[in-house]
Fold this sequence. Notes:
mainly alpha; 4-stranded mixed β-sheet; two-stranded antiparallel ribbon; 8 strands; rod-shaped; disordered N terminus; disordered C terminus
Amino acid sequence: MDLHLHQPHLTLAKSSRYRSNEWIFRDVPSDITIEVSGVTFALHKFPLVSRSGRIRKIVSENREATISRVELLNLPGGPETFELAAKFCYGNNFEITPSNVAQLCCISDYLEMTEDFSNDNLGSRADEYLNYIVLQNLEMSVEVLQQCENLLPLADELKIVPRCIDAIASKACVEQIASSFSRLEYSNSGRLHMSRQKCESDWWIKDLSVLRIDLYQRVITAMKHRGVRPESIGESLMNYAENKLTKKSNGQQKVGHNQERLVVETIVGLLPVEKLAVPLSCLFGLLRSAMMLECSVACRLDLERRIGSQLDIATLDDLLIPSFRHDSDTLFDVDTVHRILVNFSQLDDSCGDEEDPDGSVFESDGLDSPSETALFKVSKLVDNYLAEIAPDGNLKISKFIAIAESLPAHARTVHDGLYRAIDVYLKAHQGLSELDKKRICKLIDFQKLSPEAGAHAAQNERLPLQSIVQVLYIEQLRLRNALFCSELGDIHKPPVQQQSWRINSGALSAAMSPKDNYASLRRENRELKLELARLRMRLNDLEKEHVCMKRNMEKSHSRKFMSSFSKKISKLNLFGHSSSRESTSPSRNSQRTDSKLTVRTE
């Protein structure tokens, strides 16, 4: 927008301390000197007082002086903007642009260049350009808002900043709505639906990264009130953080860290409350930055709470947070991960209380429900995390146990991963006392070990003796149950439709997966082979007894011998159907010994 449409724009030479420009009347001597930030302007009173109410007051107070000298302190925009205002007073041409309109609005207020002193003055010209040109365009509004950073608080008092912020928020919202309508299309069935094309109406995200953090905060807050999509706000926050946190501080490390700390704390406070509005990897990145920059405790706790609410989609690399504390002797920050797990567990408990206060949650779909699926994923993640940090020689056993116990007992359906992590910890910490070994091994439910893990645990010398005995006892119980089921026959087997399992507490109930079914068949096959070998041994013993008895029968045909023969036959138990009264018989004891030996040699 041109005030006058003839002369080109004149630039200000910053190296010049004294101004004598060609647009000033050279044939008329200067009668007033204006000094702005060390730069002097030799001007004339009449053009200035005709437009500026402030200079008119100053001149009227110094009428007796032939040539007066005036210093304008804290003039907004500096010498460059004052030169433009002086040109306007002299009737010279210059162009109003988004890069100078905010300065012109502020200096016109400072010099009182309003309609009260002259019609069509600089203030009204600049304000008109701001309203009808700048605020109708989002990109221009961002540029003007950036120029206001050095004009505060005057730009705020003149409503330049609020108007630009409101224009940016409203334009972004309108563009998203228009983009949503453009993506509507009819399907083959005639129904109206939204196409899956990527939305390109968020081009403003990169433009906002040039703003200072305080103005950027006000823009994002206005966008939230206007209804801009949380995903777009989250993307803008991550783009802003990436641009601001990766810049170097030009040697001013302390000042740079303070500014970066302010950026992180502000961005965390602006995060949308909706889940998945910000990628989980970005939340972990913000958490690492907050820890490194020593942000406030509230900032870090907020990030930990947000991460805990969607921990089921995290990866092992996300949890491996380096320890940034100087007094820490561990490689990874275990305390932070423990707090995240506590947040996840508390979220699971609160969800359970809200959904089912009467306890009917146990009749749900079990593993198919989202909460149980999340528990299963997080349990595997925690076991892998424990295995990763276990080799750290400085990791205390109390912290290891705290991480393992942070999840509820029903979260782990199989304890193989936990057993592997504990085995790695015992291998890396061979100086543990027997009491500490018992403490850490109490975490394992040996009944939830797979046959392969149980066989490994039975031969693991690093485990305490009590744990090894427990593993052997459980394996013996499994073998005894398998033998009992095999002797019952197919008549007492449950039908195929009823081959499902349920936790005693009723918390989980699901059909056996193909992998578990295959492992069960392998285990039954192995147990049947053991039973077949045991039957063969009994058959060999019977054949030997029969041969011996036959020889004795040939030597003697007395009744006493026949009575002895019948007693020996009754002692032989081919199928192992011994009653509870005969549980202390020698044959029963030998059977227990055989089963124990068999378990140890598996």
